[in-house]
Design a protein that fits this description.
heterodimer, A: two-stranded antiparallel sheet, globular, B: mainly alpha, two-stranded antiparallel ribbon, two-stranded antiparallel sheet, 24 helices, 2% strand
């Protein structure tokens, strides 16, 4: 592939976002299709890029500031780009058939996609931060204009947290570039060999942890998340939970583990503990929720805890687990939100106590319940689905480095089963309420996004290369510790020996 | 030539789990209502056909294996290894590594055979039900899982299968999901078994860095090279106990026994299979772990305590149950208590034989008694009675099954229990453990005779005076199974599983064992076969009946401890979170608003002023860029 294909990935949503508002008199379903075709083409291009990797592209932009259009892909960014493109398609398809203000809504979705793709493609820290900041605007608008009753409050809260996060990241990246003893540059290649004093490394890592921790989010920086997730409309929450938050995970891996390995290693006990605390806290809160959306929001918080644990451990296996968790969770949480959105659309409520017996094959929502059960079990880490592969790799990879936090995360995984079963027992099982059973059935158009994600989740569980096949060389280079069993296993099994470099 | 042709079945025995798995997936087409024009019944027939296919294949494979073993000199020469990689990343390679061995083939024949019989039985039992696709699909899912479990040699894959079966249990108990007891039973089964599974997961994660392998065979080799306790890493005993937790949950051992009793709310055929082969799956994994257990005295002691407690408590609790199915569920815990004791005492062979003689008779007693339950509309033992004159065939079937579950020669269990008795008498603490085995056997015998007496003995009750005929679809499989159960000892001796024929090799232990059976069964018969018998224990025993009937109030204990703890923590963290998020946000919100107010004082509030400021900044920035930049933007850099 030519290098310009990288640029094309960014040009497509930009053009789409500019041209879509000019389309007047086009019906919403057609607008949906036109818009969805853009990320679909992105998906295709990204797959082609995977088959035939192009050389990195470097275009001058504002060289005095160190800001160049450095674009490139590697094993870390490519799977996340695929995920982002896929989720954009899914989000557009999951939008309502009578989407209000489509000529504003869809361009904003594409703007979010542009920010995401730009951040993943960036090989320049300043460009990454710029894209990250750019994304904040459409997301805030999407939150504020479409959504539940408290949407404006949710949007303002999101904006506040995102601004603090953005400021921290800008400060961290500027410091990374300016304090580098080898000369001023923001290119990833230079930052990976940056010469920084231990003191400034510590400060930069603190800023990065705060910045990305707010976005991911990690307890206690999650104040915006339950409200935003419960108020956002389905397409927005898909992008927010599956794309924007995963960008923070990518940032932690790329910047924290990649650029500041020494500080990361010396702080990793605390990072792992924060991860375990998030996992337990998120799962316990999810148990206590009375509203499905808020339950999913807290469940997502818990799963991000596992991711943080894996990043802290930073063994080749745990980093593979982290990437797998980003991909698996990036599909599972959107699926949960889509299904909850479908239930809300048909029953008019997301309060758990108000619905029951939806498994009923004639008057309930049997297919939606099948999807809900799948999504819940995937999130609870039941084997056969993508969530299990990711969680298992996280646990196994982190065990030798941090046994106690890993054990806590395993307990949290047990709590996951509690809220999953609690939700399904109430909503799926039980008697159908005769007073309100005239639920309209879901159409195939509404089911399609959920079915696509479900299939991918099952494929990922049965065929793990879908989750771990992209990033192995990249994570092997980034790993800071070795897995204790690697040597014994390689002695018994003829495996390609990986560069398990420990720095 | 014929042998070579035949051996293809053995070599392709890995296909056996695939057939029912395909059927389970095919059922999905009916379950969420994708196909509705045909009604639900085709899904049941597809599952039955696939179960039949699996039975035929596994039987032919076993037959071929026997022929080749007979011709080959060495036993086990036909063990065929299987290997298929599932995940390989960062130096960790996991696959479905398995061995097609004689034991695995025999176990598969038992599993698939029982599934065929029970699926026929289900067609009769669920005649009018609309939950066919989910139910039959779940049965096939279990069949596939169990067949895969006996084929695999990997601890990891065994864990995966146990965990999947936990999900299957949830679904199959939930077949009649609109009843509140069913919903509760499904939830408790899922959560209890998941606790066991998760502890097993901890164990298997912890053992990999130590042993470097998950293959049962290699774990056995590793264990034999670490025979001395001083060469074992610290905490090894705890890891082995964690590994045991999985089988503990599956085999309903104290304290994870609660679920099996509640699971009885599901349809009868699923209970038949659960009590016979699904719980035995847990026992199978335990057997595979035996080499690891053997080098850890801590784990051995743990197994004997857990198994002994479950064996005794289960058998005693069963004596006080008034629900037919629940009486059996506690007998299951009791029997597997004996298996745990056998493994704890180092007797792999005795445990294996206890596992092999158990599934068919247990299935038979459940099928026989539950056929009666359906036609008489009640499963309350106190409401039954006098059915010997009306339903004698089912009574005979029950008696055959019951006789094969107590130490009564020449029936199946006698040889296995005698092996266990011989084993514990040679170990440490022979008096205590020997007494335990004898007492458990007496209590199990008493429990079985009690159920027989309450249903078939005595005079007819209101519910049983007009007991209708049982549908042939339920009678036929029960009768076939009865024939198999009665021939079980001969079959096992013929296939070389049991070394001794039960009759000639009585030995010195036979007499006390027989005495314990006769004492338990005889006392129970005296009490429950009378015309005016009582279902409940004598009132002279105080509140014992109540206490035992309520499973020693285990459920209430859990509700007050574990459940209350989790619920309390959840509420606490929820309250904390409200304070944290709302408090934090309102604090920052106030700061922001105050900042904005102060900032607003510095401006005039006119839009022209804002526009001017922005324009000025843009112009200044542009000027600076143009002045200092020699390159044009968007040109490729070298």
């Amino acid at each position: 592939m030519p290098s310009s294909s990288l640029l094309l990935i960014l040009v497509l949503p930009l053009l789409g976002g500019v041209l879509l508002p000019l389309l007047s008199g086009v019906q919403v379903p057609r607008t949906k299709l036109i818009t969805a075709s853009i990320p679909a083409v992105q998906l295709l291009i990204t797959l082609l890029i995977w088959l035939h990797p192009p050389a990195d592209l470097t275009l001058a932009w504002v060289p005095q500031l160190g800001l160049n259009l450095d674009l490139g892909v590697d094993g870390l960014s490519l799977p996340l780009m695929l995920l982002a493109a896929l989720l954009t398609v899914v989000a557009i398809l999951a939008s309502a058939e009578d989407q209000a203000r489509p000529r504003l809504f869809f361009p904003l979705i594409l703007a979010t996609n542009l920010g995401l793709m730009g951040a993943f493609l960036a090989r320049n820290a300043l460009l990454f931060v710029l894209c990250n900041e750019l994304m904040m605007i459409p997301i805030t608008l999407l939150l504020a204009i479409w959504g539940g009753k408290q949407r404006v409050g949710a949007a303002i809260r999101f904006l506040m947290f995102a601004s603090v996060s953005g400021l921290c990241l800008v400060a961290a990246v500027l410091a990374l570039g300016w304090l580098n003893g080898n000369g001023f540059s923001f290119a990833y290649a230079d930052l990976a060999q940056a010469d920084l004093s231990p003191r400034s490394r510590g400060w930069i890592l603190a800023l990065l942890l705060l910045g990305f921790g707010l976005k991911l989010p990690v307890v206690p920086l999650h104040g915006w998340q339950p409200l935003a997730y419960s108020q956002a409309s389905t397409p927005v929450v898909i992008l927010l939970s599956g794309g924007v938050c995963k960008l923070a995970a990518y940032g932690l891996l790329r910047f924290g583990v990649g650029f500041l390995p020494e500080s990361w290693a010396s702080w990793s006990v605390w990072i792992a503990s924060a991860g375990a605390a998030s996992a337990i806290y998120g799962a316990l809160n999810a148990i206590a929720q009375a509203d499905m959306r808020r339950m999913v929001a807290y469940s997502s918080l818990g799963h991000m805890g596992l991711l943080v644990l894996a990043l802290a451990a930073a063994t080749p296996l745990s980093l593979q687990g982290a990437v797998a968790q980003v991909l698996a969770h990036g599909m599972i949480v959107p699926l949960l939100f889509i299904v909850v959105g479908l239930i809300e659309a048909k029953t008019g409520t997301t309060t758990i106590a108000d619905i029951s017996g939806l498994m009923n094959p004639l008057r309930g929502l049997p297919l939606t319940m099948t999807l809900l059960l799948m999504a819940l079990m995937a999130s609870a880490g039941v084997p056969g689905q993508a969530g299990f592969v990711a969680e298992f790799l996280v646990f196994q990879g982190s065990w030798s480095a941090f046994p106690w936090p890993t054990l806590l995360c395993l307990v949290a995984s047990g709590f996951t089963a509690v809220y999953a079963v609690r939700l399904f027992n109430r909503v799926g099982f039980g008697r159908l309420d005769n007073d309100r059973v005239d639920y309209p059935t879901t159409s195939w158009g509404e089911r399609l996004p959920a079915v696509v994600l479900s299939l991918l989740i099952v494929v990922g569980g049965l065929w793990p290369p879908l989750l771990v096949g992209w990033s192995e060389p990249a994570t092997a280079v980034l790993s800071l510790r070795t897995d204790p069993f690697t040597s014994t296993l390689i002695a018994t099994a003829p495996l390609p020996t990986l560069a398990t470099t420990s720095r | 030539m014929a042998l070579a042709l035949f051996s293809i079945f053995t070599q392709t025995a890995w296909l056996v789990p695939i057939y029912p798995l395909l059927a389970a997936f095919a059922s999905l087409a009916w379950s969420p209502g994708l196909i509705s024009r045909t009604g639900p019944r085709p899904s049941g027939y597809i599952n039955l056909a696939m179960a039949l296919l699996a039975l035929i294949h596994s039987s032919l494979a076993l037959l071929a294996d026997n022929l080749s073993t007979a011709s080959a000199a060495a036993e086990g020469a036909t063990a065929i290894p299987l290997s298929w990689t599932w995940l390989s990343t960062a130096g960790l390679s996991i696959g479905f590594d398995g061995v097609i061995s004689k034991q695995a083939l025999l176990a598969m024949v038992i599993i698939t055979g029982l599934h065929v019989l029970v699926q026929i039985y289900s067609i009769g039992y669920l005649e009018m039900d609309w939950g066919w696709p989910r139910f039959f699909g779940s049965l096939s899912f279990f069949e596939a899982g169990l067949c895969a479990l006996v084929l695999t040699d990997s601890l990891f894959i065994s864990y995966v299968i146990l965990e999947l079966l936990t999900l299957g249990t949830y679904l199959i108990i939930g077949t009649w999901y609109n009843q509140s007891l069913v919903v509760k039973g499904a939830r408790d089964a899922f959560l209890t078994k998941r606790i066991g599974d998760l502890i097993l997961l901890v164990g298997l994660i912890a053992i990999l860095p130590i042993s470097g392998t998950w293959s049962f065979q290699s774990l056995g080799d590793w264990a034999s090279s670490h025979a001395g306790p001083e060469t074992l890493p610290a905490g090894f005993g705890l890891i082995v106990i964690a590994l045991i937790a999985g089988p503990m949950g599956k085999c309903a051992q104290i304290p994870l026994h609660l679920w099996l009793d509640e699971a009885m709310e599901g349809p009868v055929p699923s209970s038949v299979l659960r009590n016979s082969v699904v719980v035995a799956g847990g026992g199978w994994v335990l057997l595979k772990l035996q080499p690891l257990i053997a080098i850890s005295p801590l784990a051995q002691g743990f197994l004997i305590v857990v198994g002994g407690a479950s064996a005794l408590a289960g058998a005693v609790i069963a004596l006080a149950q008034v629900d037919i199915k629940r009486a059996f569920s506690f007998l299951v815990s009791s029997w597997f208590g004996l298996v745990f004791v056998a493994v704890g005492a180092g007797g792999g062979t005795a445990a294996e034989h206890l596992l092999l003689v158990y599934p068919l008779p247990m299935a038979l007693v459940l099928m026989a008694s539950c056929s009666v339950l359906v036609t008489n509309i009640t499963q309350d033992l106190t409401q039954m009675g006098g059915l010997w004159s009306r339903r004698p065939l089912m009574g005979l079937a029950f008696l055959s099954g019951a006789a094969s579950l107590m130490a009564l020669p020449p029936f199946g269990a006698f040889a296995a229990i005698r092996e266990l008795l011989a084993l514990v008498l040679t170990g440490t603490n022979p008096a205590l453990l020997g007494g335990l085995v004898l007492l458990t056997n007496a209590l199990i015998s008493a429990g079985l005779v009690r159920v027989f007496g309450l249903i078939w003995g005595g005079r007819p009750s209101l519910f049983t005076t007009r007991s209708p005929e049982v549908i042939w679809l339920m009678v036929m499989p029960t009768m076939v199974l009865m024939g198999l159960v009665l021939h079980l000892p001969q079959l096992y001796v013929g296939y070389g599983v049991l070394a001794l024929t039960p009759l000639p090799g009585w030995g010195p232990l036979a007499l006390p064992l027989l005495a314990s059976t006769l004492a338990g069964a005889g006392l129970s018969a005296l009490f429950y076969l009378r015309p005016h018998r009582q279902a409940e224990l004598p009132s002279g025993l105080g509140g014992l009946q109540q206490w035992l009937a309520a499973d020693m109030h285990t459920e209430g204990f859990y509700r007050r401890t574990v459940v209350a703890l989790v619920a309390g923590l959840a509420r606490l963290s929820s309250r904390m979170d409200q304070g944290l998020t709302d408090g934090f946000s309102s604090l920052t919100g106030e700061v922001a608003l105050e900042g904005g107010r102060r900032l607003s004082l510095t401006t005039s509030g006119r839009s022209q002023a804002y526009a001017f400021t922005i324009l000025l900044a843009v112009l200044l920035m542009g000027a600076w860029l143009l002045a200092s930049q020699s390159l044009l933007p968007f040109v490729p850099l070298p």
